[in-house]
Amino acid sequence: MRLRIRRFISQLVLSPSLALVAVFLYGFIGWTVAVSTTASKASPRFDRFVGLEQYVRLFDTPRWNVAFSNMFLFGFLFLVVTIGFGLLIAVLIDQRIRFEGVFRSIVMYPMAMSFVVTGVVWQWLLSPTLGIQSLVAGWGFTGFHIDWLTNPSTVIWALVVAAFWQGCGLAMALFLAGLRGIDEDIWKAAAVDGIPAWRVYLHIVVPMLAPVFLTVIVLQSLAIVRAFDLVVALTNGGPGVSSDLPSVFMFDMAFRRANLGLSAASAVVMLGTVLAILVPYLYVESRERR
Amino acid sequence: MPGTFEPLIPRPRRRIFLRRTERFAARFAVYLCLVIVTGFFLAPLWVLLVTSFKPLDEIRAGGLLDLPIAFTLDPWIKAWGEACIGITCGGLKGYFGNSLMVTVPAVLASVTIGAINGYALSKWPFPGARFVFAAVVAGNFIPYQVILAPLAQTLRITGLFGSIEGLVLIHAIYGIPITTMLFRNFFLSVPDDLIKAARIDGAGFFWILFRVVLPMSPSVIVVAAIIQFTGIWNDYLFAVSFANSQNAPMTVALNNLVNSNFGVREYNVHMAATFIAAIPTLVIYVFLGRFFLRGMAAGAVKG
User: Fold this and answer.
1) How far apart are CA A129 and CA B233, in angstroms?
2) A91–B contact, CB cutoff 8 A
3) Are A17 and B136 within 8 A, CB to CB?
4) CATH architecture of structural domain A16-289
5) For residue range B207-235, what is the model confidence (pLDDT) as tens digits?
6) Inter-chain touch A271–B143, beta carbons under 8 Å
7) Domain residues of chain A, as ranges?
């Protein structure tokens, strides 16, 4: 008997975790997918099957369409800004500067802050009466305006700048690690040929960093799909619903509007978005490893 | 996925063939840019700090970046012990305690479970172990919105909804994928011969884990603990979904304090409160920065 336990100890020890993962991840995903095909309101009603009706309704809901397209707009702007500046800062830090560790730590410390803290801080900085705008006005530039938090058409920039402040450190660190992995001989060869440094970066280094770009894009895109706390703390989806995101919509429908069916459909669309990002990436990764 | 960072060791100096003045100008430009970058990243923290020591009338007068003229500790005292959050006016101290009561046990549980799982999967492999690992790790990528509603149902049925225990349980469970991944990937580098030798000596599964493998792996334990502490302390989604108002952690209390529309908005109290919420993870970052970086790189995948 003892011997048999020893033989299967690995499976035995793992089984509670596996049971939890099976129920709390896969079981719950199945539950949500199932509910998204029912007309459930405040509580799940599996006897009221409606097929894909909730998904049709979802994309007929103006608020969802704002939230869903915001996700892509926010994601695109955030990726462009974060990759551009993340790479630039990594290149600057890679110039054999003094106090490198200090500069690195300063760019990365916001990663330790929660999105709620980030949102609250930037709400304060972007406040028109007391924030950056009044500071710049105090310097004499009275025509300077940042009305991001109150203007529905530019509020997305408030999310972008706050998310950039919090997330740039990760992109920078990944790019810096990538730059450090590049062969020194390339620089020597370029110097012998008299090629200016910016051209080496643009035509040789950046193409060599392609895998790092991919990693940064995937990691940051996943963060965008899940973004929730930042919006809640910074704009609370406003003005109106102009800075709404799918996660906020899902939360509202599930816990405030008692519309579980629609909420489940939105959650499944979010899961689908994550898979659409992840599956091609994993496919490319696994092919490269072979 | 980058499991861990290679240490970011500065390279030796590169010789670029430039004239002296050009070289000086280039260096100057690099440092100037870096100072601007530093300013952007540090300014919010600076504003947070100086504002939290200013009286309200001084804040209203402008001077966002200025040091306080009439330095006061009142906002901190108020934020900690008196500020009104919802209908109770006891400051943040209770919520800080809630956060600790959620975070500490959940970190201990998820790190312990992750270590055992990672060890079993890497050092005691069985047919299908790779598939099991993939199925667990996939949990890292799932957006939590897709499990939120059934989780709420389950907590209601078990009577854990709203409680601290419920949050601990949730964080411990949803920490399993990331901690299992961290430990499993790290333990792969522990030589198998060591395990074999210990087994020949008659040592069992747990004896080898606690006496041989874990003492060799302090860094991965620290990384896993940091990533879990930061993630759980900073969590808002689970907290706002499942904690009732008296069991709410810091993130929820802070958001309620700052974004409530009642009464005079006491910006200095808000800033002090924000700082208090950020202190634990900031302290970890300052003292354990290099582990923190490795943890963040691995943890960025987490839902």
Assistant:
1) 32
2) no
3) yes
4) Orthogonal Bundle (1.10)
5) 999 999 999 999 899 999 999 999 999 99
6) yes
7) 16-289
What is the complex's ipTM, to 2 decimals? Answer: 0.91
Closest by Cα among B69, B160, B278, B1 to A24: B160
Question: Do residues A211 and B1 lie in contact, with contact meaning Cβ atoms separated by under 8 Å?
Answer: no
pLDDT band at A125 (very low <50, low <70, confident <90, very high): very high
Residue A62 neighbours by CB under 8 Å, 6+ apart: none
What SS3 class is residue B243? strand
- Determine how many CB atoms are found less than 10 A away from the CB of residue B105: 18
State how far the Cα of A119 lies from the Cα of A129, in Å rounded to an integer: 17
Q: How far is B115 from chain A (nearest CA, A)?
A: 11
Q: What 8-state DSSP symbol labels residue B19?
A: -
Distance CA B83, CA B276 (A): 13
Q: Are A260 and A40 in contact, with CB atoms under 8 Å apart?
A: yes
Of A92, A110, A170, the CB nearest to B41: A110
The tokens describing B52, both together, are: 């939290």
In residues, how long is chain A? 290
Instruction: Yes or no: say if B84 and B300 are a contact pair by the CB < 8 Å rule.
Output: no
Query: Between chains, do B251 and A114 touch, taking CB under 8 Å as contact?
Result: yes
Q: Residue B185: which residues within 8 A CB-CB, separation 6 or more?
A: B3, B4, B118
- Find chain A residues with C-beta within 8 A of B136's C-beta: 17-18, 21
pTM: 0.91
What backbone phi and psi angles, to 5 degrees, belong to A155? Answer: -60, -25
Question: Which two three-digit tokens encode residue A77?
Answer: 């702007």
